[in-house]
Write a structure and sequence with these properties.
The protein is mainly α. It is built from 5 helices and no strands.
């Protein structure tokens, strides 16, 4: 749930982060944020990362286009912000990548 200490500005920032990962066409509101699950978030991030990662965009014929790099950075930042939101809700968190190799 959105905590009582979350300001309107912080909530808007979380909604914007969801729009970056899930797309503008999703109906994203407080209820969406409260129900967002780690599995859904990871899936959305992976899709966005595959579409915008600079190494992958080279194979898509876009090279290291600045727009693609910017989109990838925005997706990474949105993911980190939403992970923080999920942690505050008390949902157990396991890193996306194995840190030990």
């Amino acid at each position: 749930m959105i905590s009582a200490g979350t300001s309107w500005g912080q909530e808007k920032q979380l909604i914007r982060a969801c729009q970056v990962l899930f797309g503008e066409d999703h109906s994203i509101n407080r209820q969406f944020l409260n129900r967002l699950q780690l599995k859904e978030l990871r899936s959305a991030f992976r899709r966005k990362a595959l579409a915008t990662h600079p190494d992958r965009s080279w194979f898509n014929g876009k090279g290291n286009h600045p727009d693609t790099i910017g989109e990838f950075i925005a997706a990474s930042q949105a993911y980190q912000e939403l992970i923080g939101h999920i942690r505050k809700r008390g949902i157990p968190f396991r890193p996306l990548l194995n840190q030990n190799g």
